[in-house]
Write a structure and sequence with these properties.
about 325 residues, 9-stranded parallel β-sheet, 17 helices
């Protein structure tokens, strides 16, 4: 697969299928990822609906959390059957629940098992990538990081996404692990120098367009996380930096398209609150944004019969708010 330059980080509670649908309209070049799906949820929980997605989301990678090679192989086959672009293994999540299963960042410290997991996923026939940190606890030597990445490369991994912070499995919660350990971009550059042409996507603290553009001269791609959740239009601005004047959907058309999508999803039985959640950040700073969000929240709490009856009129009202904000977004 060709590795895009812009990646949307897999984010629990954010990158569900509805948010991904919206991001695809905002930034056509972004490589999208699902939220992390544990192998147990699919194999034992039979929650196969977690793999549902719209074809327009492609290119799309599914991120798995697991440490059993056979389970990861089975899940990768499920992803293959559902025509995902590739599979990604989470080796960076530091949450206590994830590390209790020897998944996420805990797997970083068990190189042999990690290599077996990657090799098993490769057998599915889908391109495999690994998302990891520069270190975990006291296991943070550059030589070990290089050894880990070279080992997964030899096992068939196509590229890695590196979060430029180490993780502490004890003493810091997941939120603190996103901010307390200092960013160390220099360490990732050292890794890139040691790996030669092997593709590395940089992740962690990327909130400035100039910084992203600079790092794209040194890495195969940049992965944006919370900045894109708070301001999805950031991805569009970054796309413009890379692709120049390529014609994109207008911001108003993006919103109208998503409202049409919302109407179809609600008619199919999806909870309105789930469908509308991605929209709340889009109108930040726009005139009538408060009215826009209030209308959405009111609709989210309505009874199903009331939603079906009132949705067409509310949709027109929302489009009116969008039109009022069009000049702001021009």
């Amino acid at each position: 697969m060709i590795i895009p330059k812009i990646h949307m980080a897999p984010m629990m509670g954010w990158t569900d299928r509805h948010f991904r649908y919206l991001l695809r309209r905002i930034c056509p070049s972004v490589l999208l990822y699902t939220e992390m799906i544990t192998t147990g949820a699919l194999i034992y929980g039979k929650r196969l609906h977690l793999l549902d997605h719209d074809a327009s989301e492609h290119p799309l990678l599914v991120q798995f959390g697991g440490c059993d090679p056979d389970h990861l192989y089975q899940c990768a086959l499920l992803a293959h059957d559902r025509r995902y672009t590739g599979v990604n293994l989470n080796v960076g999540c530091p949450s206590s629940r994830v590390q209790a299963g020897n998944m996420g960042a805990a797997l970083f410290k068990d190189k042999d098992r990690l290599v077996c997991c990657v090799a098993a996923m490769v057998r599915s026939g889908l391109p495999v990538s690994v998302k990891l940190r520069i270190g975990v606890d006291d296991c943070d030597d550059l030589s070990y990081l290089i050894d880990v990445v070279k080992s997964v490369k030899d096992a068939g991994c196509r590229f890695v996404q590196i979060h430029a912070r180490k993780a502490w499995l004890k003493g810091l919660n997941p939120r603190q692990n996103r901010t307390v350990p200092p960013l160390n971009y220099a360490r990732v550059l050292e890794l890139a120098d040691a790996l030669g042409d092997f593709p590395i996507v940089l992740n962690g603290g990327l909130v400035c367009l100039d910084t992203c553009e600079e790092f794209l001269q040194q890495f195969s791609g940049v992965m944006i996380g919370r900045k894109a959740c708070e301001d999805p239009w950031f991805l569009r601005d970054l796309h413009h930096r890379i692709a120049g004047n390529e014609r994109l959907m207008s911001k108003v058309d993006v919103l109208k398209n998503y409202l049409d999508y919302s109407q179809m999803q609600i008619a199919a039985g999806v909870r309105p609150s789930q469908v509308f959640k991605p929209l709340y950040t889009l109108m930040k700073g726009c005139r009538n944004a408060k009215k826009y969000r209030t209308a959405l929240m009111t609709l989210s709490r309505a009874e199903p019969t009331e939603i079906k009856a009132s949705l067409p009129n509310i949709r027109q009202e929302l489009i009116h708010y969008i039109d009022l904000g069009d000049q702001h977004y021009a």
